[in-house]
Amino acid sequence: MKKIQLIVFALLLSVGGALAQTAYNPFTQNIHFEPEPTVIGFSCGDTPDVVFTMGLTTADNATQWQTNPLTITICVSGFTMEGPASTVVSGAYASNFDWEYDSFAPNCLVGVQKQTLIGTGPDPLFPDPLSSGEIRVKLKVPETSPISTVLAVNVNLQVPGYMNQFNSQSDDNEATQTQTFCSLKISGHVYNDTTNDATTQDNMVNGPVIYNPKDTQLFAHLMSPSGVVLAIVPIGQDGYYEFLNVPPSSGSTPINYSVVLSINQGTVGGQAPVIELPSTWIHTGEDCCDRIGDDGVSDGTIEVPVTNFSRQNVDFGIWTPTPTGPLPTTYKDFYVSAFNCQGVLSWTTTMEQNTSHVEIYRKDMKGGVFNKIGVVLAAGNSSTPKTYSYVDKEVQSQEELYEYQLRFVDIDQKWSLSEIAV
User: Fold this and answer.
1) Which CATH number is correct for 331-421, 3.40.1190.20, 3.30.9.10, 2.60.40.10, 1.10.8.10?
2) Cis peptide before 225, with omega less than 30 degrees from 0?
3) DSSP string spanning 130-152?
4) What is the rounded CA–CA span in Å between residue 328 and residue 326?
5) Would you tell me which CATH number, out of the four given (2.60.40.10, 3.40.50.800, 1.10.150.50, 1.10.10.10), belongs to the domain 186-319?
6) Distance between CA atoms of 403 and 421, rounded to whole angstroms?
7) Which residue ranges make up each domain of the chain?
8) Which end of the chain is more exposed for a tag (fewer CB within 10 A), N or C?
9) For residue range 214-237, what is the model confidence (pLDDT) as tens digits?
């Protein structure tokens, strides 16, 4: 009987020893932001890190990474992660994993174990320093985040089967969150938009940035829905401007602000200034807020609807056209007259060769600039006189004077300007 008891005891020791050699308990803990948010959260544009500790609380090394790797998933909400995964994630313990963005959830990072994870070793009072370490992820609060957006980070471990027997699942997950308290802003650029004209017609507001055409400072004016100047800023040398602390809408209906660009500086609390550019410069288009196309009316003003988030890329295009030389088109008799509160333009060409179209430009007499208001197709080729006309239906007042100018464009995109008619 004593012999049988000794054998059973020995077997229990053997089994217990085997189990002790194969115990694993991966963990995550102490998740926090660096720097910590204020009591009301992060501001738009802030770039905090989220930091947590990861490791093993058990003695043995996790060696089965080639066949049964440990996987960690880090998902964010409200934040963005910018750049390759390998540059977004850092920290001593992060080097144990290969990192990629989840192809089905781009707001998630996935780390797959790529080497042996070190256990604590035989003495729990003096654990191996490599048994745990820091993982750090770079985050950004988008500039256009709505007010009170929830900003959250969730960390989850996907533990392989061979680790599950002694794994404490409560240690596998960590989470933290805050919110935004962004003050709203409206911002954009001014471009020397040489590609949004008859030469290329890309219908985009782009090009090199500009702030002082003909060495003349440009100003952006933030206008209320009722047309009162709320704020004025000069265009910076990088072509950039921004209005800070823009009041948000109190509900889902947007406040329709507008931005006006001019060399004339208005007065806060007053009406919009005369929209004017230096002589020979024209507006080529405005865009809010997607950098795709333009608003279709090149007049130096753009409407900006605002609810509870900032608006970026409220952009302006300006340009100074330079005649490309004489064209094989000869015109005469350019006349302007008023009829039924409309402007009636007429002109005659005596000869045309490869003519594409004629663009009509208008300027009021209050110091404005020439803006394109229409296009008339040309005959193309003709050796006999051709008469054309255009009706300007947007005349504001019969008593107000306007100047008009024609721009003749051929199929090679060369062009020349007519004289100015009033």
Assistant:
1) 2.60.40.10
2) no
3) GGEEEEEEE-B--TTPPTT-EEE
4) 7
5) 2.60.40.10
6) 6
7) 26-180, 186-319, 331-421
8) N
9) 899 999 999 999 999 999 999 999
Whose tokens are 């024209």? That residue is 282
Query: Rounded to an integer, what is the distance from CA 56 to the centroid of its chain?
Result: 41
pLDDT above 80 for 145: yes
Instruction: Specify whether the CB–CB gap between 133 and 54 falls below 8 A.
Output: yes
d(CA 12, CA 20): 12
What's the pLDDT score for residue 370?
76
Alpha carbons 84 and 99: distance in angstroms, whole number: 9
- CA dihedral over 54, 58, 60, 65, signed as positive or negative: negative
CATH number for the segment(s) 26-180: 2.60.40.740
Locate the DSSP E strands across 263-328: 282-287, 301-306, 315-319
Report the C-alpha gap between 64 and 71 in whole angstroms: 12
* Tens-digit pLDDT profile for residues 85-118: 999 999 999 999 999 999 999 999 999 999 999 9
Q: Are 418 and 410 within 8 A, CB to CB?
A: no
150-158 sheet: strands from edge to edge: 97-101, 108-113, 71-77, 150-158, 173-179
Shared fold status for 26-180 and 331-421: yes
CA distances from 364 to 182, 197, 402 (A): 41, 21, 4
Distances in Å between the alpha carbon of 248 and those of 152, 224, 244, 376?
24, 12, 11, 43
The answer to whether 287 and 262 are in contact (CB under 8 A) is no
Cα–Cα distance, 10 to 33 (Å, whole number): 51
